[in-house]
């Protein structure tokens, strides 16, 4: 019992945490060795049993072993939960720098690979066979769109909100890295070219690049063809520095998904926020990406789906495009040919219900009571992957509040939409019978029979028994709703109203409006001020990005390339700007961010209440104001800063003000991110279990329920820790060495039989194998090691 308890208690080999008492394997011997020993013994026993004729006595012996093992499981959970922990007890809770909730993590090590292991590619039989086809429509943006960033963007947004609404807002958090677009009819920028998606449905950021190049005042690259690799490298840096923004980062288009902007359009339409000049640019984008069959894909490279088509069609209509428009007629033909909007996936049905053109009876239950479960319960929403958690949080609030658009029955446009997107007359649609209906084009991750059964039970509870309206069930519903809106408000404050991503951004905005009695409060206007953080303009139109940008990520890689070329000192302005940006972007580490609202949520009690990992010292994917650190972003930011600090040109601007403690904070974040399997996940430690994926309610996204360990994140963290340790060998040396060793073992275990690694954050095997090999080399596996030779 003590053995299995210590395994689930965590790997405490020379970690700077309170050593678990009564643990026979923690300390100098790695707990991983104990877990491996248990696994080997179990496998040997199974092999012997498979070959032997056990007889009655053998069967009795095996049965007794099962009973003993069951007792060990229960005892291990008790010991692991109540005695052994790699953190410390605080207020009756066991916590460390990370929130680890996995009582049965040791069991996964015993029975096989843990749930942290990501999946692989879909088998050929499950892959989409059809491909999209686009038409060149000759559509162009109106001239006048101008990129505005950082502090200037804060001023522009505050002035725009005041001019439009009469309300004064004050943007919070660091301005560094913020990238927005404003429409100025007097701006003498370039005349946007027509977009030609038939040859490439991705835009090329022509507007932004032309604007940056026109503003560049320094020397330009030679037009001569380089004759050596060194000359080619130098010319590339000479060009790239011309694109650098004034605050030091590199901006760019992070668009692609087609289901994001419709949520923003619906939220603004319902709450009455005028999008102004953005409307025309959004219409251009939607028109440009409509495919030849009349539909839109889930993302711009995908073939048409009902998810993309219904939401894009509704968006065009809400933006003012008439139903008789040729492209609208073509879109309706596609929608009706696939059975109408009842065949949309669940996320589309949810947005349509918020708008008032779909009924809640046709949406599967999202009970707010889940948040009232104790954290030790096997399923708890606090253990979900943070992106999944933060999307279903406002969804559960709006669903359980049964939000109704005030204009549902009085707005003639909504009445027209109800007659346009369904095959059956709206008042005859069998809503409950179509809760699980999903067009085959969208059924990427089919809902399991288990989840459908759970949905059916909840539907009976919600729609037929209506127990949630009666005490004591109504008390539970009310408590769940109150916690949900409290959590929503904390997420808004912790991220300066940027929120973790575009979906929960607009859902949170609508929730805040609904919670205030469908009125616009100060918090609502703070949300409105952050809408432009997600909007980007390119030659294909205005789009909503999958994040508020990739500023920190792109800039960290860029500076590492410059430094590894040995030419950092030759480009002092470039490196000084990047240093300033990365210094400003480290989360809760500058005087501005320390004085901001998110800082008060960094204490243990707040992180415990709202399931947040430690943030201070990490780097984000985008900006400091966003506030969510990520493992590999922290790693690449740390490597970038480690490379910059020794440069003489950087010392001229840093003047020794960048304290080593900030590097130590980043290392603390990285060490806290390591999972029990030795790998690193994204935003948080893996908290849930594999069976969570059985309850994935989304048909269009796979493997979203928990945070997995990835080869990319693991390698990035390992190489960052190694580079840090080389410069600061006395800081947590043994912990870092142990973390890298465990990471190396993890990377070996997830290598595919053909020698590759499956990439989850890039395309795909080449990207992952690049990280895999670097991680193994960092862990001491040289070029002669078998895993490296296999790759």
Task: Report on this structure.
The protein is mainly alpha-helical. The chain is 47% helix and 4% strand. The chain contains 29 helices and eight strands. It has helices spanning 2-9, 31-51, 55-82, 105-111, 150-165, 206-215, 229-240, 261-271, 278-288, 306-318, 326-337, 346-355, 386-400, 412-420, 449-465, 473-494, 502-515, 522-529, 551-564, 572-585, 591-594, 604-609, 631-644, 648-654, 660-673, 711-727, 733-749, 765-778, 786-790; strands at residues 88-90, 93-95, 145-149, 179-183, 296-297, 304-305, 535-538, 541-544. Helix 26 (711-727) packs antiparallel against helix 27. The two termini are 40 Å apart.
Q: How does the overall form come out from the CA principal axes?
A: globular
How much helical structure, as a percent, in the residues? 40-55%
Number of helices: 29
| Low-pLDDT regions | 1-40, 76-113
> What is the mean pLDDT?
87
Strand content: under 5%
Strand order of the largest sheet: 1-2
How far the N terminus sits from the C terminus, by CA atoms, comes to 40 Å
Main sheet overview: 2 strands, antiparallel
Strand tally: 8
Structural class per helix/strand content?
mainly alpha
Radius of gyration: 27 Å
């Amino acid at each position: 019992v003590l053995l299995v308890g210590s395994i689930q208690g965590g790997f405490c080999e020379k970690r700077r945490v309170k050593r678990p008492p009564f643990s026979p394997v923690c300390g100098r011997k790695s707990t991983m060795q104990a877990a491996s020993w248990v696994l080997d013994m179990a496998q040997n026993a199974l092999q012997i049993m498979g070959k032997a004729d056990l007889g009655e006595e053998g069967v009795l012996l095996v049965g007794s072993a099962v009973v003993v093992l069951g007792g060990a499981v229960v005892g291990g959970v008790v010991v692991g939960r109540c005695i052994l922990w790699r953190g410390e007890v605080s207020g009756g809770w066991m916590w460390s720098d990370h929130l680890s909730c996995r009582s049965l993590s040791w069991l996964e090590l015993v029975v096989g690979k843990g749930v942290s292991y990501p999946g692989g590619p879909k088998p050929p039989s499950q892959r989409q066979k059809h491909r999209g086809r686009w038409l060149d429509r000759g559509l162009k943006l109106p001239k006048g769109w101008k990129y505005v960033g950082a502090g200037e963007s804060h001023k522009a947004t505050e002035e725009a909100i005041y001019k439009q609404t009469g309300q004064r807002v004050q943007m919070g958090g660091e301005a560094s890295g913020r990238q927005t677009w404003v429409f100025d009819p007097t701006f003498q920028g370039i005349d946007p070219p027509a977009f030609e998606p038939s040859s490439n449905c991705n835009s090329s950021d022509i507007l932004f690049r032309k604007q940056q190049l026109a503003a560049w005042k320094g020397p330009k690259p030679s037009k001569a063809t380089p004759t050596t690799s060194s000359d080619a490298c130098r010319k590339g840096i000479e060009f790239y520095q011309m694109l650098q923004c004034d605050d030091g980062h590199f901006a760019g288009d992070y668009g692609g998904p087609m289901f994001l902007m419709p949520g923003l359009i619906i939220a603004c339409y319902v709450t009455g926020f005028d999008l102004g000049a953005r409307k025309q640019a959004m219409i251009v984008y939607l028109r440009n990406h409509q495919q030849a069959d009349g539909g839109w894909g889930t993302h711009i490279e995908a073939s048409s789906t009902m998810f993309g088509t219904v939401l894009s069609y509704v968006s065009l209509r809400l933006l003012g495009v008439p139903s008789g428009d040729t492209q609208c007629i073509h879109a309706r033909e596609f929608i009706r040919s696939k059975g109408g909007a009842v065949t949309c996936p669940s996320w589309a049905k949810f947005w349509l219900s918020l708008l008032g053109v779909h009924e809640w009876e046709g949406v599967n239950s999202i009970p707010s009571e889940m948040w009232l479960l104790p954290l030790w319960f096997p399923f708890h929403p606090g253990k979900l992957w943070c992106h999944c958690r933060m999307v279903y949080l406002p969804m559960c609030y709006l669903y359980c509040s049964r939000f109704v658009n005030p204009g549902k029955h009085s707005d003639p446009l909504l009445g027209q939409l109800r007659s346009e997107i369904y095959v059956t007359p709206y008042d005859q649609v069998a809503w409950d019978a179509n809760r699980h209906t999903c067009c085959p084009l969208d059924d990427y991750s089919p809902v399991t029979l288990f989840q459908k059964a759970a949905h059916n039970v909840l539907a009976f509870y919600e729609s037929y028994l209506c127990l949630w309206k009666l005490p004591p069930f109504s008390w539970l519903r009310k408590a769940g709703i109150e916690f949900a809106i409290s959590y929503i408000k904390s997420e808004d404050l912790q991220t300066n109203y940027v929120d973790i991503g575009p979906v929960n951004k607009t859902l949170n905005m609508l929730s805040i409006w609904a919670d205030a009695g469908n009125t616009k409060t100060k918090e609502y206007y703070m949300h409105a001020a952050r809408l432009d953080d997600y909007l980007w303009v390119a030659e294909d139109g205005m789009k909503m990005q999958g994040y508020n940008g990739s500023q920190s990520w792109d800039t960290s890689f860029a500076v590492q390339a410059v430094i590894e070329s040995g030419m950092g000192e030759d480009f002092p302005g470039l490196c000084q700007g990047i240093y300033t940006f990365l210094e400003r972007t480290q989360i809760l580490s500058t005087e501005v961010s320390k004085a901001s609202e998110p800082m008060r949520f960094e204490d243990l009690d707040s992180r415990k209440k709202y399931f947040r990992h430690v943030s201070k010292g990490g780097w984000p994917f985008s900006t400091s104001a966003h506030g969510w650190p990520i493992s590999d972003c922290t790693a690449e930011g740390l490597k970038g800063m480690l490379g910059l600090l020794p440069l003489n040109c950087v010392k001229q601007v840093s003047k020794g003000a960048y304290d080593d403690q900030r590097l130590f904070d980043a290392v603390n974040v990285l060490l806290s991110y390591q999972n029990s399997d030795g790998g690193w996940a994204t935003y948080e430690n893996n908290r849930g279990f594999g069976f969570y994926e059985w309850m994935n309610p989304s048909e269009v996204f796979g493997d979203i329920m928990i945070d997995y360990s990835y080869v990319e994140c693991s390698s990035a963290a390992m190489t960052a820790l190694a580079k840090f340790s080389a410069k600061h060998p006395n800081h947590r040396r043994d912990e870092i060495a142990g973390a890298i060793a465990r990471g190396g073992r993890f990377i070996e275990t997830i290598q595919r039989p053909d020698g590759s690694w499956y990439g989850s954050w890039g395309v795909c095997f080449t990207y992952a194998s690049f990280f895999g090999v670097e991680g193994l080399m960092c862990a001491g596996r040289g070029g002669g090691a078998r895993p490296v030779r296999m790759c």
